[in-house]
């Protein structure tokens, strides 16, 4: 897959996490305790500004789900390899109101491609 484009959202940010499958995968499914390898793009809901992207670095990233923000721990399980999923994550499931964190208090949009589960 290629780096995703994110359409600018319409309306106010959601109060609850939204999980939207853009492409259904047909490989192994991620589970709550899985280690996953992903490509992802993250943007600020309000401004549309990209704040992070494995695509921009040119390589996937691999990590245990338990070490990620709550929005990813909720939004990735059940996803199958080869799939692409959009997560709209309110502040409470992202970085909360952590003082000094640049993403504190922000609703975030992620497009995640699940490359492998291990």
Automatic annotation (TrEMBL):
Belongs to the FKBP-type PPIase family. Keywords: Isomerase, Rotamase. Pfam families: FKBP_C. It comes from Leucobacter tardus. It catalyses: [protein]-peptidylproline (omega=180) = [protein]-peptidylproline (omega=0). InterPro entries: PPIase_dom_sf, PPIase_FKBP_dom. Residues 33-118 form the PPIase FKBP-type domain. This is Peptidyl-prolyl cis-trans isomerase. The keyword Isomerase applies. Its EC number is 5.2.1.8. GO terms for molecular function: peptidyl-prolyl cis-trans isomerase activity. The lineage of its organism: Bacteria, Bacillati, Actinomycetota, Actinomycetes, Micrococcales. It is an enzyme of class 5 (isomerase). The keyword Isomerase applies.
